[in-house]
Queue: 2 jobs
Job 1
Amino acid sequence: MGIYAATDKLPARRAGGTPIKVGSAALDTSEISLVKVKKVIKQTLAQLPALTTVAVVEVATGNCLAHVSRLRGFDPATVAAHHAETVRQQQQALAALPGRAGRLDDILIPLRKQLHLIRVARNGRWFVYLAVQAQDTSLALAREVLKSIIV
Amino acid sequence: MAYSTNTPAGKAVEAIINDLPGLVAVAVVDVNSGMALASHSNSPSVNPETAAAYNTEVVKQKQKAMSALKLTGEKIEDILITLTNQLHLIKLNAAGNKFLYLAVNARETNLAIAREVLRTHAEEIN
């Protein structure tokens, strides 16, 4: 697969060429398997090679379990907690709605030049945070890729 | 039914279903986001929203190829994709910001009919 556009700003990189940084302390305390977390990140990298950031975050604690970032000097762990708070607030809002509103699937944040997506796992305990350049990927494509990986 | 007949996109989808009742899938797609404005599928295996997202990349890459080849004054009218058993068609509107995506069974519909149907409804999604 690998539908993406090589741009001047972001040269094409081999999928998996970027090391996956694992927050081992965070993983020790969570019940989410490292194998699964790594697999999710690898699959996302393979399908969206031009992505800028992908991270797996635990909803309850806001701990970043693993991440890959192509932005120099940017640690996704610093924003992971804020995104986790967004997810928790939205889950609470859904719980407060009358009737059964259903499960939170994803949150899409289109910025002018970037797209940020949050896809919550089926069990609602962890989510994937993805950031891409808008010129590389469309909102729908990024969403479909995350949907195919996190069923 | 993933469309509302109150919108132009939904009306176009409804009209295409009327013209080609045996179609596999149809969608009106926004090129910028790749999101389907209206869609319908007669096959459980074809998700028109997934098809919309990936086919948007096809359109965008072709537009990039054309600008790389400096084909000024040209624009994509339609893209025809022949599969073993299916025909997939993409028809852009005049502005080039939306397109109709149609998948039909090759045994039931021929290319000329499918293309003509899309041509008649392309103006409705401007």
Note: The longest strand of chain A covers residues 126-133.
Job 2
Amino acid sequence: MLFVFWIIADNEKLKILNEPLLPWDLFFIKQLVNLLPVIYKELNILLVLSVLVIYCILIFVFVKKMNGSSLQLRSRLIVVIVSVIAILFIGSFKDNFVGRFFQQNNITVIEWDQKINQNTNGLVLGFLLNIPSVLIDKPNNYNRSTVEEIAHNYTEKRIQQNSTTQKPNIIVIMSEAFWDIGNLDEVLAQENYIPNVQKLQVGTVASPQFGGGTANVEFEVLTGLSANLLPAGSIAYQQYVKRETPSLASILSAEGYRSIAIHTYFKWFWDRENVYRHLGFDQFTSVTEMPDAQNKGVYVADSEITKEIIKEIEGNEEPVFIYAITMQNHGSYYDHRYEDATIKVPSEYSEETTVTLNTYVTGLVDADRELGSLVNYLNTFNEPTIIVFFGDHLPFLGADYKAYVEAGYIDNTVNWSLQDTLKMKETPLVMWNNFGQDNKQLGAISTSFVGVEILEMAGLQKPVLFEFIQQFSRELPVYTSTVKKTMAGKLMEETPEQLLPIEEQYKILQYDILFGECYIKSATN
Amino acid sequence: MSLKKCLNWMFYFTLPLLLIVSMEMMKKEGLPEVFQWILDKPSRLFVTYIFVLCIQSCLFIFTKICMSCT
């Protein structure tokens, strides 16, 4: 009967939220109770009643049959112990032989679309594969007074700032898989495929992802929180952003901005429709709202995003915060998606890699050209405007890092040095403005710290959380799960001991915002 | 072992399989799709079967203990 209820809950959730039942839903029972009046209208009462009636009949039959006992107490105990151990092993598969079994049989969770995950892996296994992402430990010192203490320290620093009088438009372009292909080899470097980015680049961002998982990059940029403090392999958008969460969008909306998300793909992808609402966006323009958008190759052309950005900054009287996510250069690249328009790279690689690079570079050149045209437009635009442009992660250029290995960019596919690990995370970062403010060189920073730099360039008062994040970024400008970098440029895998207290504070604040009681809200009011 | 007992055990070990197939049938379009899903990767069914069997064992015995207490 447990499984029957599972199916009902799953069906109802699919109907209401277009997402199957997932392990972390069990933590939202409180919200479910609050939502019952709404859900009640959507429930199939007949189905629920039928299940309850069948359940009662089965219980009755079961009681009748239970008069005779077939197993001794000792045998029952053994069965229970063995079963519980097996359930625990399966449930915590990450670090045991069950995990290895999954790996050998290529059984993986499809995080980016849980409906497909359920369809591919089945209802039960689809659910089980998500379990490791659920277990979020509450930090030891998490309580109201600790959060208030942290907030108090950074509130004092915050008061010293002054907000600028004229608020600039802020345009953030997260360009799909944008990376300086010149890093791959000398020949490609000489081709200078991305002149605009090279001219305006102020540093690099260290992405938490490689080849995909864009949602986690977005999560870091918009919230300032860190995917490193979440379970490995988890997707913050799908799993943890389930309620109102402070972000650049909500902060800037409170400052009088109109916050707009633009993505030339579907709203359901990475659950953005719901997540953007939680993050406080005023508007979300997806491909559905752009019926006349032209494709280039398989996806909507980057030039359509430029048009949409210009339309929004011209059409709004209040300053705008635009978070634009491009799609044109989305992998995989081993197709001939641009036909005759494809750029032919001069380097010599295997045929598969050459086709991949040709397709990738064609998209890359388009993305760079669009940045250039937006900068040209804004140079003559009469409102102060900031452009932030970066790649969300390095591109997937063939299985087992094929192109990277062929080019000798990395030595092998495993056991990377810390330098190689960082190299496989860094994409170019552009921060530019049309009101003459110096574009300070930032070096390598984690995507979690991009938001702080945006608020800094805009001259806006930072909320306490971002004051804290700025302080943290001054200690560890690169903070990812596999590599960290100090201000002095030292690379390391683990957080150095002297920075563990501030890392603990980061954990506490992140826990408070995503899972806890949100004490930070009352502490800063 | 009597035939009745044998059938009981067979039912006990077949029940998880029936449950998995019926659950998947509710999600997929029909029985052929469920069989296709099983044939695509039998290892998925294997892990699911073990998991459901274990849950079933615990629930059966737990209910039995509760019954004998009352």
Note: DSSP finds 22 helices and 13 strands in chain A.
